[in-house]
Every structure is written in structure tokens, then in C-alpha cells.
Amino acid sequence: MSTTTSTQVAPRPRRPLRIYQIGSHLFISVMLLLSLIPTYLLITWSFKNGLQYRWERWAISFPLRWRNYIAAWDVVGDYMINTIIVAIIGLMGMLLLSLIGGYVFARMDFPFRETLYYAIIALLMVPWVLSFIPAYMVYVRLGLLNTRLSLIIPELAGGPIFGIFLMRAFISGIPEELFESARCDGAGVLDLIGRITLPLSLPGLATLAVLNFIGVWNSFLWPLVMIQDDDKQMIAVGLYKLARSATSGGVPGWTSQDFSVWGPLYAGYVIASLPLVLLFIVLGKFYVEGLVDSGLKV
Description:
The chain is an all-alpha fold.
């Protein structure tokens, strides 16, 4: 006859939250709320007319004035198209040069490889404002003033510096056995880059794409100096000019009386931010993964 004895383990008492945990959670909640308030106000004000903006400024007003977005798009639409063209062309070239440069410095062996690599990385420590006037004089001498090439070429010349640094870290983490197996099957350099390096480096490329696109979208001083025609101007400068014109009543169809100008103006800000939101939604997963992996590999 066998007897079975069951022992019941008493549940461990729950430890009370410590004061610093409560304080940290409260601090994070407050910071999150403060960061969301400007976004709430921006979206709310973009749907108001003049009277709603004056008397119901902090609350959602009905009916929503969708016409503000139509009026804003008529002004900022060309700026956004110009910026998207410059960003996409510069982005494609920057990613290609970064991928090739990262592969060269990570997998190819040649004299003075490390010296040349650190010489390129040293350019990251040079403030861009030091080269602003010399670069302006070069572009003027080349006849590129007031052209889109004056906005695209700096992305192709300066973007790959950080891109090579990041992509070398990614490519160095790819097992060498994959490249050796491909070489045994007769793969060339282009095959190694296109069929092995590119698919395994997508998180790093996504990180570069997001950072570069945001940089182009927020670029202000260089386009302000290089571009004189509004039909070629970038979105950041366009919004600045729009705000100055709107407050002085200089935008066709807009009036500055009774705050009626603020609804379309804030609608223009919302429209200008949508491409960045969509970009992060599409590449957000790869972007975060790329940041984590680059931190581990670097």
C-alpha cells in the first residue's frame, strides 16, 4: 500500500512597490502627457475656423473644418513633392554607397584599409557649419545654385560617412562561412553584396533610411540659401515662409483677421508631418531592430 503526500507551497507574498518605482512611473506618465499635448493641440487647431479658435481653443470643436486641409494642401503640396523627390533620390544613392562602402571595409582586405576607414569616420567630428561657406562657393562656381542637384549632391557626399560606419558593423557580424560558400559556388563581388549582404543588412539600411529621410525633411538652412524659387523649395523652408505670409495676410485666400488664418496653417503642419509618420509605421520595426543590433555590434 502506497501513500501519496501532497505538499502545498504557500504563495509568496507580493512585494509592495517601492517609492522609487512609483516615482519613476509617475514621472514617465507626466513626460508622456507633456509630449502628447502639443500633438493634440496641433491636430485640434487644424480643424477650427476663426471663431472656434478664439472661443474654444483648448477643446475639440464641431463641425470639423476639413476645408482647412484643402487650403493648406494648395500651398504646401508643391513643397512636399519637391522634398520627396530630393529625399528619395538622395536616399537611394546614399544607401547604395553605404552598403558598398560597408562591404568593402568589412570584407575586403587591401593596404591601409583601417587608416582609410578611420580617416572617413573622422569626418563625422567636423561640424558641418565649418564647411558651409566653402561648399556654397563650390556649388556657385559649378553653376548649381537654385537647382535640385544642390540639394541632392550633399546627401550623396555626406550621408555615406555615417552609413559606412553603421553598415560595416552590420556586415562584420555576418558569418564568414556564408561568403566562403558563395565564393565556392562561383559568386562574384556583386553576387556577395546583392544576394547575401543586402538581405541580411535590411535592419541597418532601414535605420539609415529613416535617419536620412528625417534629416532631409527637416533641412532648413542649406535649402534656404541655395534655392530662391518657391517651386523648387523644401518643406521646412516652405512652412517657414508660409507662417510669415499667413500672419501678415499674404497667402491668397487666407486672411489674418479673427484668427481665421491659424486653422489652415496648422493643417499645413499636420500634412507636412504625415510622410514621417507613415515612414516610421512602415520601417519602425526594422528601425528599432537596427538600432539595437548596431549598438551590440559596434
